[in-house]
Specification:
The two termini are about 45 Å apart. The protein has nine helices and 32 strands. An eight-stranded antiparallel β-sheet has the order 9-8-12-13-14-11-10-23, covered by helices on one side. Strands 15, 16, 17, 18, 19, 20, 21 and 22 form an eight-stranded mixed β-sheet that branches. Strands 26, 27, 30, 31 and 32 form a five-stranded antiparallel β-sheet that branches.
């Protein structure tokens, strides 16, 4: 089978985009029968799980999806919808017996991993779940790690539930290491309240570095502490608030001073995972373009993801100290987990996850429903709202801080002439992907030794837009310029970083090329 790296060489399609194209093709073709997709460890092909494959169907699907990328189609007898139902049911059963620490689905293996407090009898809960006859439940050492469970009857037709004991991390554990980054436990204390919330992304404004969180967490002047109210790690005070005292705000955000050192422009998920924040969504309603949104709040205590379902939503919040607020300009999303957002998650940064594990800032968690909607039979616990990051930063006069990525592109052609050189290709900066960027060309040597020429990559290249959705069609260049250099000489072409969040300039793929100038 051809490898994935080979499938992307020499084209405008990178691994992240190839993954998206294949996912779109698989979900469009399969609908509810699509279960999961993953890249093999050796990155030589993709695997697509399909619910209840029929005879001969795997080969036909492999041929069709193989037009996008090397693909293996495998059977999964447990559907995604079944696993969703199991996750909700076992969570409810565990709550009735004493509580839930976390619930994680693994669609690839048809497994729900349920972590419960020590006070809950795992064996009694397993018996209750197994008695339904619809689920296989196991407990104890056999499921101490998900890897062990992956080898447990993966070809079975029933969903599986792995029940283990575990304690929720202490709130203090979630902020002691590199405290100032998105996803940290904060307590906001004012004259009327003391609220547990979660820190959002780092932002800059007025020459300083600040944190941003949900506006309803505290009014201007409120004290922000890392950890519990008794913690001595005070960061500072809220300086700007778009919510408090405003009966009908657009969005829900607040900015607070960061004190001390250790600020980190990344997203804290847990003690073993932080995601590098590389950029933000361009503008509202840009979050809808990403499709999927994830966050990790200090009550939820796990990365929770789901699909964006609506933008431009209004929501009436009646639970805070200065009366009812009809908040407009929010984004609604539906979590894969049993409950989207819990108290204390407010202010968490919500983001899209790139194929390389990095994150794109989408917004700030505002709230979630706490119960079902009896009129629509919708499980409203799975729905939440967030303020788009473009709204939050524009309303507070700040800019997101990210660990920027380098620009990239491709040199398609370099051609010598009579005292001239022609270069053709494309270039873009993923941190400002809808903007045209500068390109520098050096004839006869690298920067510092070659003859330099500069221009902007703003030509029409619809193939780049197709490969990198939502970046625009104007990232191409096809330029001919005069040169004093003669002979057979190399031409080096560089994409110039357009953002101020790092990443540097980058040598275009395909460069250098050798030309002959008469």
């Amino acid at each position: 089978m051809d490898d994935v790296d080979g499938a992307v060489q020499g084209t405008a399609v990178g691994l992240q985009e190839l993954t998206g194209l294949l996912l779109d093709a698989a979900t469009s073709e399969l609908g509810d029968r699509y279960v999961e997709m993953w890249l093999t460890e050796g990155q030589d092909h993709f695997v697509v799980g399909v619910h209840d494959l029929q005879d001969g169907e795997a080969e036909a699907l492999q041929a069709e999806l193989g037009l996008v990328a090397p693909t293996e189609v495998v059977n999964r007898q447990v559907s995604r919808a079944e696993l969703d139902e199991v996750a909700l049911a076992v969570s409810a059963a565990a709550e009735a017996q004493g509580g839930v620490v976390s619930v994680v689905r693994n669609c690839e293996r048809g497994v729900v991993r349920l972590v419960v407090p020590e006070s809950v009898s795992a064996s009694s809960l397993a018996d209750e779940i197994a008695a339904t006859g619809q689920v296989t439940a196991v407990t104890g050492d056999a499921v101490d790690g998900l890897e062990t469970l992956f080898d447990f009857d993966i070809a079975g037709s029933q969903p599986k539930v792995a029940i283990v004991h575990g304690a929720a991390p202490s709130p203090m554990d979630t902020y002691l290491s590199a405290p100032m980054k998105s996803g940290k436990y904060i307590t906001v204390t004012g004259s009327q309240h003391s609220l547990h919330c979660t820190s959002g992304f780092l932002v800059s404004g007025g020459g300083g570095t600040y944190g941003i969180t949900a506006g309803h967490c505290g009014q201007v002047g409120s004290s922000v502490k890392l950890g519990t109210a008794s913690s001595s790690l005070t960061q500072g005070n809220i300086q700007n608030n778009t919510y408090w005292g405003n009966g009908n705000p657009v969005g829900d955000s607040a900015v607070f001073i960061i004190g001390g050192s250790g600020a980190d422009a990344s997203v804290f998920v847990n003690s073993s995972l932080s995601r590098t924040l590389v950029s933000q969504a361009q503008a509202a309603p840009a979050p809808a373009l990403y499709g999927r949104a994830c966050f990790s709040g200090t009550t939820t205590l796990q990365e929770s993801c789901g699909n964006v379902t609506a933008t431009g939503v209004s929501f009436t919040n009646q639970q805070h100290y200065d009366g009812s607020h009809n908040i407009s300009g929010l984004v609604e999303w539906q979590s894969d987990a049993a409950q989207a957002v819990q108290g204390g998650d407010s202010g968490s940064g919500i983001y899209a996850v790139n194929a390389d594990g990095t994150a794109v800032a989408l917004g700030l968690i505002q709230s979630g429903y706490g119960q079902d909607d009896p009129q629509t039979s919708r499980d409203d616990r799975k729905f939440g709202y967030f303020t788009p990051i473009g709204t939050a930063t524009s309303m507070t006069g700040t800019s997101i801080i990210a660990n920027g990525r380098a620009p990239f592109g491709w040199l398609d052609l370099a051609q010598g002439g009579n005292g001239t050189v022609r270069v053709r290709g494309w270039a873009l900066d993923p941190d400002k992907s809808r903007e045209a960027i500068d390109v520098h060309v050096y004839v006869g040597g690298v920067s510092g030794s070659g003859e330099g020429h500069a221009f902007t990559a703003n030509g029409y290249r619809p193939d780049v837009q197709s490969a990198y959705p939502n970046t625009g069609e104007n990232h191409g260049f096809d330029v001919t310029f005069s040169t004093s250099r003669r002979g057979t000489i190399p031409v080096y072409v560089y994409a110039i970083n357009a953002s101020q969040s790092g990443g540097g300039n980058a040598h275009l793929s395909g460069s250098p090329l050798t030309v002959t100038v008469n």
